[in-house]
Amino acid sequence: MVIETKVTPGRRLRALMECINDKGFVRILETHSGLSGIIAENATVERDGSTLEYDGFWESSLTDSATKGYPDASIVGNDSRIHTIDEILNVTSKPIIVDGDTGGDPAQFRYLVRHLERLGVSAVIIEDKVYPKRNSLDASASQSLEDPEVFASKIQAGREVRLSDDFLVIARLESLIAGVGLQDALDRAEQYIIAGADGIMIHSSKRDPEEILAFAEAYGPLCRRLGKRPVLVSVPTTYNSISDTELAAAGFNIVIHANHMLRASHRAMKEVAQQILESDRSMEADPFITSTAEIFATVGFDLVTERDWKASLVQRLSVIIPAAGRDPAFPDTPKSLIQVAGRHILDYQLEAVRRTGINKIVVVRGHEGQQFGTRYADEEITLCENPRYEETFDLYSLFQAEQHMQRGFVLIYSDILFDHEIVQKLVDTGEDIVLAMDGSYQYHMHEIDKRLDLAISANRREVHHRSLQPAALTEISRLGKDIDREVADYEFVGIAYFSEQGAKTLLDAYKDCQQTARGAFHEAGSFNMASVTDLLQELINRDVTVHGLEIHKGWLEIHNQHDIAVAESEMLPMAPAVLVAD
Ligand code: SPV
Ligand code: MG
User: Fold this and answer.
1) 44-47 and 96-99: which strand pairing?
2) Can you tell me the mean pLDDT for 78-90?
3) Which of 44, 52, 112, 517 is deepest in the core (most CB within 10 A)?
């Protein structure tokens, strides 16, 4: 809801008439602010197995004025009204009907119509009274009717200036309010319909619906005579014993509950203001007021804080790239510095990582470490050293960056190209240890006889079949190169996220194993020669949950010249870091 609400002005504008054509009648609720709009938009009731809701909103002159503390007497100007309308539009998606008062003079009305149509308002209703008008529900107010010809020309002016027929110009008859009777209302209706009115609103301040029902009854034959039937509108404020369903059955297409949200809040505010004074504190008012948490949720504050939290989480993270090892396929260069389309793999990695918002990037160098030279000194990466790269493996390299792990980190192998979204998705899971897992490895051509980092999922069956979920989270039960390709569910992509807690768990296990591990360590001959996957298997064995996030495509491992050729061919038409491998 709220900022997540997505509708274009044109789509919203058309939705009112589409809904009337679809259902025959629409139920409209008054709103006077963004908050009342959100509440009206989301109100639902279950009845007879279906969900009832409002089809749109009424932006009332009475309640817009009252919200500002003003009487409804043409005092609040159009600019202010439009400001309120815009507030409501901004946080809702349903159609809005605007109470245009008398519309002002034809020139003013033209500008109003243009503005409302551009905003995505579906209809404006103007009343045939003389400016400045007085609210219709006050029996003591003088109600001077406009000359019907003058009013009809105003309707025409509004229709001429609108850009599409979807925007409705509705004429409101005040004959019954002014006490000049049904026949005057019918005569005026005829004149306004001939002038092109898209709808007729018949207003009444009687407690009994009799006179508007009499109008509705005469409206059918009148329209048949005129050969068209503009939509018929009712505002049952005083005659509210009649139901919406009964009004629809009588021929009304739009039923407007015109001021109830404001009146409800007025009563509630008055009572609570009184209560606090009486109790000398606010505690007694608590049962009558909404919790701040619900207000936050209603206006989408929780989404703001959630995003803040995620953003700050990402900003605190480091990326650690162990790049100390020697790859026999590229004996003369650190893997990070392998060239793909004229740039180092590390360049692509830095670019992708920075797109996630992570600024702290740590590279652990070893073999041919001097080649990093000064090239990356200015690039704000931190270099760590693994001088024992010949007698150790990637786990040892990773922990040479131990001081950069504390606030959580992302591990990225030095020989992969990847889409930055993979990193973002891992962090977004909110889990402590999450590995990016490719579920499509079985379908890949692996021309080299490389031993892949494979994984078995504890619940693969549940995530295997087709799913609307763009990314499925699973629990890893086994990880390593010795897993039979036939039984493996995934290939580990070489990107893993460790939250602050996840990093601590990993670090504790590492320290522990450093003290206790003797001889072979999982798939490695010794703890020194262990891979990160060996320590992750150790965690799994210690009942730590290691999650896998299933991804498809978006990464490529550079293992030989063929991989480089594939990467280069895919990059040609694309931005360098947006690589999609298959
Ligand atoms: C409004 O809501 O401002 C209206 C309807 O114009 S009524 O108050 O009944 O006149
Ligand atoms: Mg009004």
Assistant:
1) unpaired
2) 97
3) 112
Q: What is the CA radius of gyration of the chain?
A: 35
Q: How far is the CA of 58 from the centre of ligand 1 (A)?
A: 10
Q: Left (φ > 0), alpha (ψ -120 to 50) or beta: where does 150 sit?
A: alpha
Burial class (CB in 10 A: 0-12, 13-18, 19+), 114: middle
Pick the residue with more confidence: 545 or 138?
Answer: 545
Distance 252 CA to ligand 2 centre (A): 19
Q: What does the CA dihedral 201, 207, 212, 213 come to, rounded to 10 degrees?
A: 140
Q: Please tell me the distance between residue 209's alpha carbon and the centre of ligand 1 in angstroms.
A: 17
Domain range 2-258, CATH class: alpha beta
Judged against a pLDDT cut of 80, whether residue 77 lies above it is answered with: yes
Pocket probe mutation, ligand 1, options 101, 131, 237, 260, max atoms within 8 Å of Cβ = 237
Same CATH fold assignment for domains 2-258 and 308-579: no
Handedness of CA 15, 173, 164, 62 (dihedral sign): negative
Which atom of ligand 1 is least distant from the CA of 101?
A: 6
pLDDT at 464: 47
Is the CB of residue 136 below 6 angstroms from any atom belonging to ligand 1? yes
Query: Do residues 20 and 231 touch, judged by C-beta distance below 8 A?
Result: yes
- Evaluate: CB of 122 within 6 angstroms of ligand 1: no
Q: Which of 64, 72, 432, 453 is catalytic?
A: 72
Q: How confident is the model at residue 460 (pLDDT cuts 50, 70, 90)?
A: low
List all residues 6 or more positions away from 7 whose beta carbon is below 8 Å from its beta carbon.
15, 93, 120
| Centre of ligand 1 from the C-alpha of residue 63, in Å | 8
377, pLDDT greater than 80: no
Given a cut of 90, whether residue 315 has pLDDT beyond it is no
Query: Quick check: 579 pLDDT over 60?
Result: no
Does the pLDDT of residue 465 top 70, yes or no? no
- Please work out whether the CB of residue 259 comes within 6 Å of at least one atom of ligand 1: yes
- Strand 433-438 relative to strand 490-498: parallel, antiparallel, unpaired? antiparallel
Enumerate the domain spans of the chain. Answer: 2-258, 268-299, 308-579
CATH architecture observed for domain 308-579: Alpha-Beta Complex (3.90)
72 catalytic per annotation: yes
Is the pLDDT assigned to residue 426 strictly greater than 90? yes
